[in-house]
Amino acid sequence: MALSIADIQHLFDTYGALAYSGEPVTQRQHALQTATLAQDSGASAELVTASLLHDLGHLLNRQGETPTERGIDDLHQYYALPFLRALFADAVLEPIRLHVDAKRCLCAIDPAYRAKLSADSVRSLRLQGGVFSEDEAQAFLAKPFAEDAMFLRRWDDLAKDASRSTPTLAHFLAIADSIVKPVEANR
């Protein structure tokens, strides 16, 4: 089943107040902060939308609070893709799909990066396969949209401040709506 922009709004309205996996923000705050960081960095509408929706899989496949503490990797980076594929191009979908592997790559290529990860991100890193080897990192970096995924990942890591103000969800959903695939492409 494909989601509409109204369905995405409903998911955030219904489940956005849930805690963001061991962090001091809600799912909605995290999504809005990530999208705000992308927008403030001058990212494209596609990457801003990917930043807003990168963790939508958590809202579609709820595993309770802090599943990593129970050894669960919910594979959220993949879960939302079938629901979003009719709406968005690969410039939105691929950074979402790749943002977990971007963390694994950044840990391999940037020694300071891993030290800045939150406790939950360190737990999830182990569950998601750990730090990439040099060969895995190079293979990741060669993928289309890897660079966008790494930008998204860094914004994701910074989007955990309970006091940060952001534009509204409506603001970002309007951006998402502006890049929805034409109806003919959805057939």
Automatic annotation (TrEMBL):
Classification via CDD domains: HDc
Residue ranges constituting the HD domain according to the UniProt record: 29-104
Single GO MF descriptor: hydrolase activity
Gene3D superfamilies in alphabetical order: Hypothetical protein af1432
Superkingdom to which the source organism belongs: Bacteria
SUPFAM superfamilies xref list: HD-domain/PDEase-like
Name used for this protein in its record: Phosphohydrolase
Source species: Caballeronia telluris
